[in-house]
Amino acid sequence: MTLNSTIDRVTDRIRARSERSRGDYLKRMKAAVLQGPARGHLACGNQAHAYAAMGADKDALVAERSPNIGIITAYNDMLSAHQPFERYPDLIRAAARKAGATAQVAGGVPAMCDGVTQGQPGMELSLFSRDVIALAAGVGLSHNTFDAALYLGVCDKIVPGLIIAAATFGHIPAVFVPAGPMVSGLPNDEKAKVRNAFASGKIGREELMAAEMASYHGPGTCTFYGTANTNQMLMEFMGLHLPGASFVNPGTDLREALTSAAVERAAAITALGNSFTPAGEVLDERSFVNGLVGLMATGGSTNLVLHLPAMARAAGVLLDLEDFADISAAVPLMAKVYPNGLADVNHFHAAGGLGFMIGQLLDNGLLHPDAKTVAGEGLSLYRQEPKLRGDRVVWEDGSNQSLNEKILRPCADPFQSTGGLTQLSGNLGRGVIKISAVAPERHVIEAPVRVFHDQQSVKDAFKAGSFTTDTIVVVRFQGPRANGMPELHSLTPLLSVLQDRGLKVALVTDGRMSGASGKVPAAIHVSPEAACGGTIGKLQDGDIVRLDATHGTLEVLGVDLDARPMAEADLSGNSHGIGRELFEVFRQTVGPATEGARVV
User: Fold this and answer.
1) Which residues, 6 or more positions from 143, have their beta carbon under 8 angstroms from its beta carbon?
2) pTM of the entire structure?
3) Among 119, 337, 361, 370, whose Cα sits 20 to 30 Å from the Cα of 532?
4) CATH of the domain at 546
5) Which element (helix H / strand E) includes 474?
6) Tens-place pLDDT, residues 102-161
7) Residue 573: which domain range?
């Protein structure tokens, strides 16, 4: 199948834009590879420290003839998605020995749960935790005793941070090892109804708590299609998981066998073997374009519009919002998973899942088939699905048709002809909007604005009943430089209630929404942000703003912005409490949202 012309053109544009940075990156990685296996350059004293606690594995480590695999783990048991990782190091060490290798935990990285910190001060650390994760993984791998790395991480900032680390240590192979989604609980649409009822004052906290506990009820990733599950999709589309590994539930025999298989594969692709596949070669322009295609085809999280540019830059690849927009226009929306539909990721997986999607997209020329992967040359391996035969995994051809077209459709009959992510630009700056779950009649909203400087002020206005007409809610000073760009997730139920009352409403913000944001039109990541002099900081109550997702514009109408003063906000409260003191240097040095809000 010939590659789609838009996919080809965007890839060439990225390649040309990245020529210098990617070239410099590859030179550094090649120089590191040419030095040979790292342990050969360590002094005896260095090695003795590294192997002191390794017991029966010491002889193999000293001999330097078998690969040593470093484990970077984001385990903690507060995150349901990461709780299964508690047992993984023992499983990995045992699988490594069977494969003639050794494995050590190189280091742990922090992993915070955005579900716990939503609407709380801790959310102001969330985005920056991605860079802390990259730094912490770098510390673990800096001991330079590893021939490959296994990365254990699932959720929102954890996978992007680990990718940044994997790219930085791109001279060794990287295999990402998932934990899988929890089994289905209270349907997500029922949960949303309860949240809206609570926001409207129709039910109390006791009923809300019961619904939340029935939704988040066991080990594994939350089952809606938010940032965590979008990350897992990306790792498969980008060839960093084993095929079909993303959505196998924790605690199953297949899940354990896939983890063992990942260890075997990591050992096989080191420089000590015959299939050397360093991470820097996997993470190229084709891989990131394939990830963008997966994001659009599945209607994935808007948070990846921040994370993918940051991840790519670590490998010398420069992505721009125009790349997202152009690929979105060329890729059909093939999946309806909550909040874009009623199904959860378990239903999606049962309907054919990622294997069906990848096969369809390959057959229609919408993916780079020749992209390198940890499983081997070519993405076609990822149209297969894993099966358990005894205690081992084998891969067989997956379904060539959807088993539930209410959830998953072929390219020829998609839910929408485009991926539903649109770049916005105009006199208010640049931003993005996700419209895959927004009704077509709400793709264009023109209304007076109400301007706020924090979420709580919006909530107070809602409780006071002051939203009675069509309104565009502007929440500014929420960008990375202002307060670390917390998700404005708690606004979703309020705006949904207003929309259900028949009002035309939208959100415009230099902040970000939850990866599960859905039916309310939201122009997010508006850049430059207000704290950096962006024109969003010049809006005043009553100004008429037009958000046009059809034509990709975001404009304030009939206003001479040059004559307007910039608003001022008291940001002193963002600098202390719940650890925010420790992140002042991050707020002062962070880059713009259009480049991934990068610190490292």
Assistant:
1) 50, 106
2) 0.94
3) 119
4) 3.50.30.80
5) strand 471-475
6) 999 999 999 998 888 888 899 999 999 999 999 999 999 999 999 999 999 999 999 999
7) 421-595
